[in-house]
Write a structure and sequence with these properties.
Layout lengths: L1 H34 L3 H9 L1 H12 L14 H24 L3 E3 L2 H10 L10 H39 L5 H23 L3 H26 L3 H17 L4 E3 L12 H20 L3
Antiparallel strand pairs: 1-2
Helix pairs in contact: 1-2, 1-3, 1-7, 3-6, 4-8, 4-9, 4-10, 5-6, 6-7, 6-8, 6-9, 7-8, 8-9, 8-10
């Protein structure tokens, strides 16, 4: 019993060390993002703070970096980690279109998108061809590129943090606690760049904590950090790059769109509940 208490205290001490280091490192980049330019460079640095904090924590605890979940894992969970965020993002925008909060992009808008991603000049393309080729290109090449930056986050949050939390918390506890910390880590950016801050913070916390349930499920199932990397990158690309380009916003409906939108929060919350119930049923 005493040994268990000691191990629990040691785990919380490790978690505390990690959180202190990631807070200090992130504060430097948050300051740079707000006060220096170009902010895009510093956002990339910020996204690698969880990984650096992990490496420093492992060094302090005299644990090797290879102890992290570097293995690729089962391909099943890699595929599902692509399909799940693509699905919930698509459902989000289908509901926006069907409920009249926005319209599907017209041919003029799609031609503009085609020009942006370099499809103009390679022959006459139909609207359908533009959509298909655009989704294939952005949904593969951009996801690969996005994975390089989200990897820094996922080494920390899913590769290290949730596996430490799993030693002392249930699946529900791990998902809630890690999701709350992950959302709070973004807080300064939302406050600085946001418009309707109260609403955006609310929807963002719902989205991130809901995603945490899904990503924790796939990470634990695969015993690998890579499903989380794929999941994170795909979610960002579909909700920030692909589906907004296929949508014409309606005046007064801005609050329903994007990663801070009400519709995205509703859909991800439903998905989060599903994965929570699934994990409980499987006794994770």
């Amino acid at each position: 019993m005493q040994n268990t208490i000691t191990e629990t205290k040691e785990t919380w001490r490790t978690i505390g060390i990690f959180l202190v280091i990631v807070t200090i490192l992130s504060a430097i980049f948050h300051y740079a993002i707000v006060n220096l330019y170009p902010s895009r460079i510093y956002i990339g640095g910020l996204m690698w703070c969880p990984a650096i904090a992990t490496f420093i924590t492992l060094k302090i605890k005299k644990r090797p970096i290879y102890s992290l979940k570097w293995n690729w894992g089962n391909w099943k969970y890699i595929r599902l980690s692509y399909l799940t965020p693509a699905l919930y993002a698509t459902i989000t925008y289908l509901l926006i279109w069907l409920l009249g909060f926005g319209d599907i992009a017209n041919s003029e808008t799609l031609q503009s998108w085609a020009k942006e991603i370099g499809l103009i000049g390679i022959g006459t393309l139909s609207t359908t061809s533009i959509v298909i080729i655009g989704i294939l290109l952005v949904g593969t090449i951009s996801v690969i590129r996005a994975s390089a930056t989200v990897l820094g986050e996922e080494i920390g949050w899913r590769g290290f943090f949730i596996f430490e939390l799993r030693k002392v918390l249930s699946f529900t506890g791990v998902s809630l606690f890690s999701g709350f910390i992950w959302a709070t880590w973004h807080w300064p950016l939302i406050v600085y760049y946001g418009g309707n801050i109260a609403l955006e913070l609310t929807t963002f916390y719902i989205v991130i904590i809901s995603m945490s349930f899904m990503m924790t499920y796939y990470t634990f199932k695969a015993k690998s950090l890579w499903p989380a990397v794929i999941f994170h990158a795909v979610s960002n690309i579909y909700i920030q790059k692909i589906l907004p380009e296929l949508t014409i916003e309606k005046e007064g409906m801005r609050l329903w769109y994007g990663e801070y939108g009400i519709m995205f929060a509703i859909v991800t919350f439903v998905f989060g509940i599903y994965f929570w119930r699934k994990a409980i049923k499987e006794k994770m």
